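Just curious. Invent one:
>
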Amino acid sequence: MSLLKPRLSPVLTQDVIDTLRKQGVRTVLDFLEHNAEEMVKKAGMSYKDVLAIRHVLLAQYSAVPVNGADMYEDALNSMAILPTGVKSLDTMLDGGLYTSEVTELVGPAGVGKSQLCMYTSLNISRNLKQNIMYIDSTGDFCIQRLQDILYSDQVEDETNAFYQHLKLVIVDSLPAVVLPVLGGAQTDGHGYLMHLARMMKTLAVDFNLALMTTNNVVQGEAGETKPALGRAWSHIPNTRVEIKKQDITPDGENRRTAVLTKCSRQPTGLTAEFTITPSGIETYHS
């Protein structure tokens, strides 16, 4: 709690503060914990002046009461669900990507995380007319691949203006940003990672955005695979989806299985199957 200072109230002079400190009253909380009669004796002030100081301190430091029903209504009005465009994946995610949350795609290199990010960004920008910020930290973004998907859906307008509202931020991939720092001084690297995590969570909540990140996998001590970036990062994403390779379909398509490993709305362990085709990503029907 803040220390008592002269600027808090005109009648709270430095002499009064010095007197209060001798009585063990140093902070705003110390002052407010005593009733007015006690403070009159401790500070040697008039009852009127003590009440004036209490009024100022309560106005400046008290929490503003908020109606829970109003907060719930505001949350419902501001929340949005952004479908990825892959029906099986959206069903598993209870509709798609939620704003004010961080969704992480985890999997080995070449499993299709970047393609899923691109396909999701195209679906949201084209069908929902929302703005996307795509941060490609690895240089894997393939404009030719993007054109193939666009042309396959017969998008004719090549001069679409930048959409008015930003709803999705994609960071592909997060380890490429963090690992060079983690490879140096471990203490500094961990602090940087946590600072980045706080910024991402704050950005998602304050601006009502959905954040989508990709992460690699590493091998644990028992030989199992787990998300990279360590235990501290594992608590940051609200939703985590692990992408796994499956056998190629009889039609020669690359089949993938998405496993929900972390989510507050859906039970973990749910799966969704999809295929990566020249025209994009489609739900797999066996």
